[in-house]
């Protein structure tokens, strides 16, 4: 356990001392803030128009139909998902690719740690870095809780779902980073994989039948959508857990093969 913790600390230090992580975190805060501001303004306009219409129709119940979760929070979590697809590859690209480029991977591969311990330490360190995106997302949710009255259930499940997304994508990005020396190749390859998971169900509407079910089964947004609406399904949890497990298994296999060359 102490060896894993040492690897976790090493990975966190390497990321924090690099400007890339700070740039990505800042970019996420800026873009998430822009989406947050846009959705809140849009909600305010809708509320104002609805209030005017309700007053004209003498039907105050129309205002009660406005739902902050449906009009703001659900869309906000969808935007958070898109940002993760674009930004997580930049955070994971240097995890092992940088080690190979600088030649420090030889030190890790000959250290008295198993491939499993090496993967666990590097991955947990990466999750600590990418997990900052979830913390940043929670900040904007906290603002809504402070000044609005949204339903807390969908907020909790949305953050849980976002955490699962981050954990799964981090594992895949880390796995890609173990098979190349180039950070750019690692970032682009990870982004392509994430994008495929994001758009795989786009033809589903016209496919129909078994093909539609298969495409939906691999879709990242389809499995995240329930979390954003307050619905937690075991199928969705298994999906993200499977992605993470697949990424970690691939990373371990790649590292083990390099170790015994």
Structure description:
By secondary structure, the protein is mostly helical. Helix content is 84%, strand content 0%. The protein has 13 helices and no strands. The protein has helices at residues 2-16, 19-57, 61-64, 68-92, 97-102, 105-109, 115-147, 152-177, 183-199, 204-207, 209-218, 220-228, 234-259. Helix 4 (68-92) packs parallel to helix 8 (152-177), helix 8 (152-177) packs antiparallel against helix 12 (220-228) and helix 8 runs parallel beside helix 13 (234-259). The radius of gyration is 21 Å and the shape is globular. The relative contact order is 0.14. The mean pLDDT is 83.
The global form is globular
Structural class: mainly alpha
Radius of gyration from the alpha-carbon trace, in angstroms: 21 Å
Percent of residues in β-strands? under 5%
The largest sheet, given as strand count, sense and whether it forms a barrel, is: none
The total of helices stands at 13
User: What is the mean predicted local confidence, pLDDT?
Assistant: 83
Strand count: 0
Helix content: over 70%
Poorly predicted runs:
none
Q: Write the element-wise H/E pattern from the N-terminal end onward.
A: HHHHHHHHHHHHH
For the record, give the distance between the C-alpha atoms at the N and C termini, rounded to a whole number. 26 Å
């Amino acid at each position: 356990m102490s060896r894993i913790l040492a690897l976790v600390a090493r990975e966190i230090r390497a990321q924090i001392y690099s400007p890339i992580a700070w740039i990505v975190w800042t970019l996420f805060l800026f873009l998430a803030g822009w989406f947050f501001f846009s959705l809140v303004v849009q909600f305010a306009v809708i509320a104002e128009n609805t209030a005017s219409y309700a007053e004209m129709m003498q039907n105050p119940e129309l205002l009660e139909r406005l739902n902050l979760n449906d009009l703001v929070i659900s869309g906000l979590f969808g935007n958070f998902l898109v940002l993760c697809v674009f930004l997580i590859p930049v955070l994971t690209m240097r995890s092992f690719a940088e080690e190979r480029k600088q030649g420090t991977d030889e030190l890790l591969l000959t250290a008295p740690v198993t491939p499993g311990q090496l993967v666990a330490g590097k991955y947990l360190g990466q999750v600590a870095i990418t997990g900052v995106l979830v913390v940043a997302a929670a900040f904007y949710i906290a603002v809504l809780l402070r000044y609005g009255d949204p339903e807390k259930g969908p907020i909790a499940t949305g953050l849980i779902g976002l955490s699962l997304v981050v954990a799964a994508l981090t594992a895949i990005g880390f796995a890609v980073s173990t098979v190349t020396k180039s950070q750019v190749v690692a970032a682009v390859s990870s982004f392509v994989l994430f994008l495929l998971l994001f758009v795989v169900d786009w033809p589903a509407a016209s496919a129909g039948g078994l093909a539609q079910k298969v495409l939906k089964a691999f879709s990242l947004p389809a499995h995240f959508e329930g979390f954003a609406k307050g619905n937690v399904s075991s199928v969705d949890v298994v999906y993200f857990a499977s992605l993470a497990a697949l990424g970690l298994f691939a990373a371990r296999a790649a590292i083990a093969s390099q170790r015994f060359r």
